[in-house]
Amino acid sequence: MSAALNNNVVGLHTNRVSESISAYLMKVKRRNENTYYNYEVAIRRFFMWYKNKTLEELKVEDLDILNEQMIRYQAHLLDDYDYGHNYVNALVAPIVKLYEHLSRNRYNVKAEDVRLDKLPDDGESYGELTVREAETMAKLVVKQKKGQEKSAIIRLAYTTSFRKSSLLHIKWSDITKDRSGTIYLVKAVGKGGKAHTRPISEDLYHELLKIKTQPYYQRYNDDYIFHLSKDTIRNMMNTLKEEMHITEERNVVFHSLRNVAAGYIKETGGDIEEIRDQLNHSDYNSLKHYMHKDTDYLNMAGIRMNEEIEDEILEGLSREELLSLIINQNETVRLILKREAKKMINEKGSK
């Protein structure tokens, strides 16, 4: 193609980039409405990061890109937003498809400029933490600098299952009470721009309020609850893992706190729908490690339905045997039993 003809082709596309992207998304929409929505969100997000422009503002020169800039975008999604590999792959793929479309329509771009090696499927399989370990972290971290704030964000993380990026964007105005006026609700925006609301205890709410009493906190007036950098949170976790002798092989990171409640639900007999709601997932693909991990055939419905155990079975145990039975349960079951025992003791004391 001659230089003059090439310039004419480029000229034809000047100020028409948004129309070309719109035509591409129209094709996607005809195939699948959900895919169209996800692709549009991913493409808009990328160009807002890359050029700080909406799709309607883009010009031909804004499409020029080096592959190393895509590598930085991938790192931005992984490090700044704490997204799992699968979601990052899903955000990058529409960019590659778009550049393929633009190349076929005579834009001077190549899909290779934005193509990245696919990150390995992690199923968000970060190292697991038990409820007890998460609670211990919240207690130990108090002695660190900004300890009250760090303790509160740890507790809020494993209680709500919000991602780190969502937690850091929560404002005081995002905490409200339900219609009964007895339960505190926290609203956060998750990946894909989806809002998610989770309840928190009155005790946790008052722990959050204690942040406002810290002397350093008086300099903030932006309504955000937390003022912790990503490096601060990473260093916090490294220190806690060292104190608690959590080995690197366990792959425990701050994101591990997000999955604590899901693990609790699984261990206490909750179903996959409850886990999906807790984690605010729109599909089941990211939950396969909860559905298929550590298959326990003895506890499957087909066995449990045909297993008859009389209600009086526990009466045949001595006090010591009952205590031994409780102590030998997993940590989550013990925690449930202790909470129920505390409730019963408190009720007796109030009579």
From TrEMBL:
PROSITE patterns: TYR_RECOMBINASE. InterPro entries: DNA_brk_join_enz, Integrase-like_cat_sf, Integrase_catalytic, Integrase_recombinase_N, Tyrosine_recombinase_XerCD. Residues 124-305 form the Tyr recombinase domain. Transmembrane segments: none annotated. It comes from the Bacteria. GO terms for molecular function: DNA binding. It holds the Pfam family Phage_integrase. Gene3D superfamilies: 1.10.150.130, Intergrase catalytic core. One of its GO terms (biological process) is DNA integration. Keywords: DNA recombination, DNA-binding. Belongs to the 'phage' integrase family. This is Site-specific integrase. It comes from Paenibacillus peoriae. The lineage of its organism: Bacteria, Bacillati, Bacillota, Bacilli, Bacillales.
